[in-house]
Amino acid sequence: MPLNIDWKQILLHLFNFVLLFAILFFLLYRPVKKFMDKRVQYYKDMDDDANKKLADAEELKQTYEEKLSVVDEEIAQKKQDADLLAVKERQEAMDRAEKEAAEIVSRAKVEGEAEKKKIVDGAQAEIVGLVAKAYKKAASDPSAAMDVFLSEANEGKNE
Amino acid sequence: MTKKTKRVLLITFACVLAAILVAAILAPSVEKEETIQEAMSDAVLHESNRISLFGLEVNPGLISAFVITGILFIACLIIRIFVIPKFTLIPNKFQAALEKLVDLFGGVARDNSPHRPNVLSAYIFVAGTYIFFSTIFELFGIQAVTTKGHPISLPAPLSDINGAIAMGCTTYLFIMCGGIVANKMKGLANTLKDFSLPISMSFRLFGALLSGLLVTELVYYVQFLSIGLPVIVGVLFTLLHALIQTYVLIMLASLFYGEATEPHVKKSRKGKKNKQ
To answer: Residue B125 contacts by C-beta under 8 Å, 6 or more apart in sequence?
Structure first.
């Protein structure tokens, strides 16, 4: 063969290269690559985990914000209800007070009227008594009767 | 260590070096067994200096290849047993270097063959490591004895045409297999289209490494040139060659593999009709 090309030696070189391939691949390349891939996976997992936690935290934050907004609405509603209730109760209290006041006034009026009537009646009775007494005295002693009448009339005035 | 001691050691070292140099120049040279023409011709053809491998006469390059495989096997075994189990998430310098090496080839594979980078990454890792170490192997000048009883220093395996052909053809077969797996017959046709690839790859490797070897042979043939100059020659024609040839082969393999494994997209006939 030209250039001393020898098929037997080419095949021996080929055998040597295949052998070397197996040695380098199994003893060096694969373990190193495996370790590198494992490390990449480790950091990827760590990254994924961190991202997941971040997403969870965001979701939780969103939930709490929603809850807070609901709570705010509830507080506003309750405040409004309380205000309405307070206004209603105040109105009722005022109505009740007015009603009571009206009752007291009317009762006072009635009582006043009754008292007035009683006084008037008492006075009338007294006057009638005095008149009757005066008449009797006048019938017996008209000047003394006049004096007694006048003195009693004055006492009654002083009282 | 005091300054005085340092000075004494330095002077002693310089004297020993000078003595060795003088002895090397004055010592009678062994008569050369071959002329420069014969040495150069043998570096290319390996017709006279052959080595016995279990009774089979082979080129020295094949022995170099087996020696390199042995050395790499031991190194990998040590790394696998003592280093890799102690890998940590935050790497130390050696771990970082190993990871960088694997990632470097992985990056080349991903860039040039984005559809099927995994197998390519492993292949170019092995091929690159082999080419690099087999090229710098000749720097160490490991000695072997030829069948004629002459001592020779083992050359780079890929400076042997058989080693270069094996490497080129293996790479071509790898690309072809990748093409078939990815695109079936279309992938096969795609690879067969570049039928000159194994030849060009083989002879590129052979030529590049042989040129370095020939220049080194020339330099070492003349005795006075072998003082100091081999350092420069060694760096230029061995270390740079190792890096450049590794880069060239892995880039070629990646590019052609990427092309062969690229998913085949069928052109729709409607589109063609519309264009017409």
So the answer is: A24, A25, A29, B101, B102, B105
